[in-house]
Design brief:
- The protein has 99 residues and is mainly alpha-helical.
- It starts with a helix and ends in a 14-residue tail after the last strand.
- β1 and β2 form a beta hairpin.
- The relative contact order is 0.16.
- The chain is built from 4 helices and 2 strands; from the N terminus they run ααααββ.
- α1 crosses α2 and α3 crosses α4.
- The protein is globular.
- The chain has a two-stranded antiparallel ribbon with strand order 1-2.
């Protein structure tokens, strides 16, 4: 998908969820498209180059906003940090190998 097409889609999704299309929210959505099943720390690392003024706390706040709005999914595998993904429209499962 072309970057401008993705940006248009992200803006529409955010506005549809009654959220403003801020640069931070757009960057987090892009990061999760590029890196599904990412931790908050991974998302921060992916966007901090494009948004040098952002902080890990800001990323957590955006992830919480997007999760509450249903635009992303948060899941917590046993023994792991919370992971985030864009795939929300189905009931797929996440398995954790413990050996």
């Amino acid at each position: 998908m072309h970057a401008t097409d993705a940006n248009t889609r992200y803006k529409q999704e955010l506005r549809g969820a009654t959220l403003r299309a801020t640069s931070g929210r757009m960057a987090v959505l892009r990061a999760l498209e590029a890196s599904p099943h990412a931790t908050a720390e991974t998302v921060f690392a992916l966007i901090s180059g494009d948004l040098p003024g952002t902080s890990p706390q800001a990323v957590y706040m955006v992830l919480n906003d997007l999760t509450r709005a249903g635009l992303i999914r948060r899941f917590e595998p046993a023994g792991s940090a919370a992971l985030y993904e864009r795939r929300t429209g189905d009931n797929h499962h996440h398995l954790v190998c413990d050996s």
